[in-house]
Specification:
By secondary structure, this protein is of the alpha/beta class. The chain contains nine helices and 13 strands. It has helices at about 5-20, 80-85, 110-125, 130-135, 175-185, 205-215, 235-255, 325-330, 330-340; strands at about 35, 45, 75, 95, 125-130, 145-155, 195, 220-225, 260, 290, 315, 355, 370-375. Helix 3 packs parallel to helix 5 (about 175-185).
């Protein structure tokens, strides 16, 4: 081999060896992420303390395509929005509940009085419930100065909803307590999202009638898989079957397909045969939002950072040290948002506009640029 060729081979070999020896974080395109341990049965999420959820990549990690024309500049906000100090790019608490039990249960369950107290706190702090579907679709139609909150109940348990002999929600169920709260605080919408499995609320043959009642009263029924398995590690074909069979139940009982989906145990599938993005859209379903079981409020649906494939929720719980709830559960986060009102979502009262302070409007996703208002 000519001397020059030998020299070239040596140089290339050295370069390749050096590249392999570099630490992963030094290689182009790779990043390391620190995650905090999650509670048992929930997915580990990027570490974040009160102060704002960790930014997420767009679904699939693909950069958004550059617009062909510059977006229109934001228009001046209304006097009402400015007076309300509207910030529709702020954080939204999406609260996760399970069973509502008077006695017993696990740490993820709440008592009727605990639920009453949390809803009372939300109502008095001017939070107005919206469903998960309304949230992910950007249909947040609440008064100026109010804050949206998304109340989600997993597993479709009878302690959340059942009808008594008179055809009304049974006392001490979640739906009955929501109705009680609205009676005391008329601006508090008694709506929530129920993520259900194969037998919603264990109503059996009465499930169609029960779910119809909920839908007629503004509640959302959504997909939570058929048998509530841990999807992590399941083959893609089984994940598809679990979602598709549950979707059949939702369509049959509610009359409409699911708009949103929540992972059982908060665990996304880690399949080798399919991209995890197939959870958003399959052959028989198309979700507009997929919810985790994490520990942070969600970023605004109008934000550049909003990732509809990984929407964060916070568990309903007091400020107890177990599972980090002194920092990451509902009581701690609601206290933090009360103390930092500029960080939470505050409505401008106009569902056709997206208003934010001048220092925050740059975080608006480009698809909402024509609705931008600033003060």
């Amino acid at each position: 081999m000519p001397t020059l060729h030998k020299f070239a081979v040596l140089v290339i070999g050295a370069a390749l060896l050096f590249g392999l020896l570099l630490p992963p974080e030094a290689r182009e395109g790779e990043r390391t992420t620190v995650v905090q341990p999650a509670a048992q049965g929930t997915e580990a999420v990027p570490a974040a303390a009160p102060g704002g959820p960790t930014a997420s990549a767009k679904p699939g990690g693909k950069p958004s395509a550059a617009p062909s024309t510059p977006p229109p500049p934001p228009q001046p906000a209304s006097a009402q929005a400015a007076q309300a100090k509207a910030n529709e790019l702020g954080q939204v608490p999406v609260i996760m509940y399970h069973r509502i039990l008077a006695k017993g249960g696990s740490e993820i369950d709440r008592t009727p009085d605990e639920l009453r107290a949390e809803l009372k706190r939300l109502a008095e702090a001017n939070y107005v419930p919206v469903t998960a579907a309304e949230f992910v679709q950007g249909r947040i139609d609440i008064p100026a100065g109010a804050h949206p909150v998304v109340l989600t109940f997993d597993d479709g348990n009878p302690t959340q909803f059942t009808l008594d002999a008179a055809g009304s929600p049974a006392p001490d169920t979640a739906v009955a307590i929501l109705m009680e709260t609205q009676a005391k605080y008329p601006s508090f919408r008694p709506v929530a999202t129920f993520f259900v499995n194969k037998d919603p609320f264990q109503l059996g043959e009465e499930s169609n009638a029960g779910v119809t009642w909920l839908v007629q009263h503004g509640f959302e029924i959504a997909n939570h898989t058929y048998t509530h398995p841990n999807l992590a590690g399941m083959p893609g074909s089984k994940v598809e079957s679990e979602i598709a069979k549950a979707e059949d139940v939702v369509k049959k009982t509610s009359g409409s397909p699911s708009v949103t989906f929540a992972y059982p145990f908060g665990n996304a599938p880690r399949t080798k045969d399919k991209d995890n993005e197939f959870v958003l859209k399959g052959d028989t379903w198309q979700f507009q939002g997929v919810f985790l079981a994490g520990w942070n409020p969600s970023v605004s649906v109008f934000s550049k950072e909003f990732d509809r494939s990984r929407i964060s929720r916070i568990r309903s719980e007091g400020k107890v040290k177990k599972d980090g709830c002194d920092k990451f559960c509902s009581t701690a986060w609601l206290e933090w948002l009360d103390k930092n009102p500029d960080k939470r979502y505050t409505s401008d009262g106009d569902p056709s506009a997206v208003t934010a302070p001048s220092g925050s409007i740059s975080q608006l996703a480009s698809e909402f640029a024509d609705r931008a208002r600033v003060y």
